[in-house]
């Protein structure tokens, strides 16, 4: 799930906590296996194989729900958060330290765009072969919500699930004190720049420090605009708190992709947030 | 502004909530094989108190009763996605003397005729249970074999559980059959080889009442046919069949504020030998810290006598007769204390139990108390390890 994962639970005994945590982790593993790009037998691999043939594929209800959600996010982000844009990864190698040439970006851009596939009634069709879906930015957050759902089903009343920096809590600590979540300093990511109390719901962060390269003093981050194929000039980091980790995660991604309009969009959204701009100035109600 | 703000959030929220919650199998709610292999070992020392010299016929036999050392090995392992195998093997060595019968003493009270302390035996017992798990239940086949110097027994059974009502209710049932053969040490007038067959069946229901309590009740019926007497007794002749019904009820209540649980059990037993018994048990499971649980327990037992029980042996009486203390009227109490230290994949158990039977502890009045009523101490240490 990309990064360290942890589950903390309060239960009657350590044994019980361990058992419940295992059930929750099993759910995370289930989703990881189901939506991993790296496994041939995953739903994502089957979808992408159907796309390569220019064919169509019927998907299960859960995948359909995720696709509907992806479509909603695309719509709400005015086309910026697009699950087909993962293919740009092929030309953007952030480890290389060199920018891709414009021709290679233009060569791949035709394969980016949700509007180039057809989705409805559980059927995903690819009139244009070669479009790839990537549920990064959705599945990890959804998995945190699902892990919490499993814990709730098992009667857990206090706990915290963290999947690679995305967090969902189950209530507060038993003494009603909130969980304290450290927010990374976008310029010194191993340090916390703020600590946010979390009584319930989910918290997600996104930053230009996650994957990026510096070329001639300019920061190019992994947040790519699907219409240009180039990184956006974004905020340095955004943290959002929402009832569900999935929504917090989508909100941070959209706010980052919105670039200079990110702050205004967060204000409109109305969820508690902490945004740090390129000058290190903090914005939002979570300070 | 306000409309815009709530519109985006509500669009995301409703799309997120529309992702169907798929059925998730979790350890606690679905019937699934264990995820790990578990091995366990217990060592128990069972020691019966000596018979008081005044309770036995003077200078005949030993005052020393049974000592039994029990080694128990267990393996529980998942097999494939839907099966588990649970195997236990017991190895017991016993030594000591046992009552052969009773005679009337000078003061009218019965006196025990004890065997010499020469009885030494080894018992081995293997039981294997294979379980198939289904989405809402499980089915098991059980088989066992047990052997001693003079005894051999096979058993076979089928059991099942079905969860209904959102898994808040569990129905259970089973049938079993056993075939026991006894070949006593040869002696004049003693049988050489005898057999008995037992068929059992049970049905039960467990109900989750709320987050804190569970109630389980079951009815067990058993029918034995064949040689049911004790060939080593001087005078012992029992009916050649026995049918019994036992009603078991178990209640579990979790006290969150104390981090403790109460287990209360009741068992009513009746059979066509005219015996009736009550067993009431309490256990207090107290979590001391996340890795340590202490369990004090108390059990009370009382039984009436079998209709052919006689306090003194009298070979001249026609028909069924026995002076076995197990068929006599008495009551008993058991005090226990266990401690369980555990972590995610290991457990260490230490427990002690003291059992005292006495005529005065019976619910009714016992006119003639059997001189051979048991007192014993049982000490157990063991561990479980999962990997």
Which strands sit side by side, in order, in the main sheet of chain B?
1-2-3-6-7-8-9-10-11-13-14-15-16-18-19-20
**Number of DSSP strands of chain A?**
14
Q: Helix- and strand-based class of chain B?
A: mainly beta
Strand content of chain B: over 45%
Overall 3D geometry of chain B?
Answer: elongated
Q: Roughly how much helix do the residues of chain A carry, as a percent range?
A: 25-40%
Relative helix content of chain B: under 10%
CATH homologous superfamily caption of chain B? monomeric porin ompg
Record the strand order, biggest sheet of chain A: 1-5-6-9-12-13-14
How is the main sheet of chain B built?
Answer: 16 strands, antiparallel, barrel
Biggest interface found: A-B, 42 and 34 residues
Mean pLDDT of chain B: 90
**CATH domain fold name of chain B:** Porin
How does this structure look, described?
The complex is a heterodimer of chains A (287) and B (387). By secondary structure, chain A is an alpha+beta fold. Chain A has 7 helices and 14 strands. In chain A, the strands form 4 sheets. Chain A has a 7-stranded antiparallel beta sheet with strand order 1-5-6-9-12-13-14. A 3-stranded antiparallel beta sheet of chain A has the order 2-4-3, with helices on one face. Chain A has a two-stranded antiparallel sheet with strand order 7-8. The radius of gyration of chain A is 19 Å and the shape is globular. The two termini of chain A are 28 Å apart. Chain B is mainly beta. In chain B, the strands form 3 sheets. In chain B, strands 1-2-3-6-7-8-9-10-11-13-14-15-16-18-19-20 form a 16-stranded antiparallel barrel. Chain B has a two-stranded antiparallel ribbon with strand order 4-5. In chain B, strands 12-17 form a two-stranded antiparallel ribbon. The chains are: A alpha+beta (287), B mainly beta (387). The interface between A and B is large, with 42 and 34 residues.
């Amino acid at each position: 799930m990309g990064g360290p994962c942890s589950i903390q639970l309060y239960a009657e005994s350590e044994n019980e906590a361990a058992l419940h945590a295992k059930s929750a982790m099993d759910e995370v593993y289930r989703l990881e296996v189901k939506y991993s790009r790296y496994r041939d037998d995953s739903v994502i691999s089957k979808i992408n194989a159907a796309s390569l043939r220019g064919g169509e594929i019927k998907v299960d209800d859960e995948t359909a729900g995720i696709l509907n959600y992806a479509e909603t996010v695309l719509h709400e982000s005015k086309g910026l958060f697009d699950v087909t844009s993962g293919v740009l990864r092929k030309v953007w190698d952030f480890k290389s330290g060199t920018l891709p040439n414009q021709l290679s970006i233009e060569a791949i851009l035709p394969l980016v765009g949700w509007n180039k596939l057809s989705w409805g009634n559980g059927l995903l069709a690819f009139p244009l072969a070669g479009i790839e879906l990537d549920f990064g930015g959705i599945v990890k957050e959804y998995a945190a919500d699902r892990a919490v759902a499993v814990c709730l089903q098992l009667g857990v009343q206090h706990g915290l699930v963290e999947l690679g920096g995305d967090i969902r809590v189950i209530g507060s600590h038993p003494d009603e004190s909130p969980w304290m979540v450290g927010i990374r300093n976008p310029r010194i990511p191993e340090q916390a720049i703020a600590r946010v109390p979390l009584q319930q719901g989910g918290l997600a962060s996104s930053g230009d420090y996650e994957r990026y390269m510096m070329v001639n003093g300019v920061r190019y981050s992994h947040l790519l605009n699907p219409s240009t194929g180039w990184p956006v000039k974004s905020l340095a980091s955004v943290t959002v708190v929402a009832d569900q980790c999935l929504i917090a995660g989508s909100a941070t991604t959209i706010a980052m992709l919105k670039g200079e309009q990110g702050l205004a969009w967060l204000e409109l959204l109305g969820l508690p947030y902490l945004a740090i701009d390129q000058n290190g100035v903090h914005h939002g109600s979570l300070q | 502004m306000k409309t815009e703000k709530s519109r985006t959030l509500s669009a995301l929220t409703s799309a997120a909530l529309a992702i169907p919650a798929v059925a998730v199998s979790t350890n606690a709610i679905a019937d699934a094989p264990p995820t790990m292999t578990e091995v366990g070992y217990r060592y128990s020392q069972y020691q019966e108190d000596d018979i008081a010299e005044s309770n036995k016929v003077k200078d005949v036999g030993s005052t020393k009763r049974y000592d039994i050392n029990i080694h128990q090995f267990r393996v529980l392992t998942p097999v494939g996605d839907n099966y588990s195998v649970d195997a236990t093997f017991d190895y017991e060595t016993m030594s000591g003397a046992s009552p052969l019968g009773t005679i009337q003493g000078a003061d009218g009270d019965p006196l025990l005729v004890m065997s010499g302390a020469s009885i030494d035996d080894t018992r081995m017992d293997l039981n294997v249970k294979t379980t198939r798990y289904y989405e809402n239940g499980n089915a098991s086949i059980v088989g066992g074999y047990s052997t001693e110097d003079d005894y051999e027994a096979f058993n076979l059974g089928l059991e099942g559980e079905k969860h209904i009502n959102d898994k808040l209710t569990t129905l259970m049932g089973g049938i079993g059959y056993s075939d026991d053969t006894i070949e006593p040490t040869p002696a004049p007038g003693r049988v050489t080889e005898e057999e008995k067959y037992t068929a059992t069946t049970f049905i039960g229901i467990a109900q989750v009442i709320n987050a804190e309590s569970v109630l389980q009740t079951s009815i067990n019926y058993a029918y034995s046919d064949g040689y049911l007497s004790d060939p080593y007794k001087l005078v012992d002749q029992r009916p050649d069949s026995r049918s019994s019904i036992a009603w078991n009820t178990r209640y579990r209540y979790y006290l969150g504020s104390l981090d403790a649980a109460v287990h209360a059990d009741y068992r009513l037993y009746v059979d066509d030998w005219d015996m009736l018994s009550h067993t009431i048990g309490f256990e207090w499971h107290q979590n001391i810290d996340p890795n340590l649980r202490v369990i004090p327990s108390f059990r009370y037992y009382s039984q009436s006598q079998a209709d052919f029980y006689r306090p003194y042996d009298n070979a001249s009486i026609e028909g069924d007769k026995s002076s076995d203390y197990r068929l006599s009227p008495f009551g008993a109490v058991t005090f226990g204390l266990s401690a369980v230290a555990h972590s995610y994949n290991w457990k260490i158990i230490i427990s002690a139990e003291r059992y005292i039977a006495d005529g005065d502890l019976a619910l009714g009045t016992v006119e003639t108390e059997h001189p051979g009523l048991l007192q014993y101490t049982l000490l157990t240490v063991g561990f479980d390890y999962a990997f």
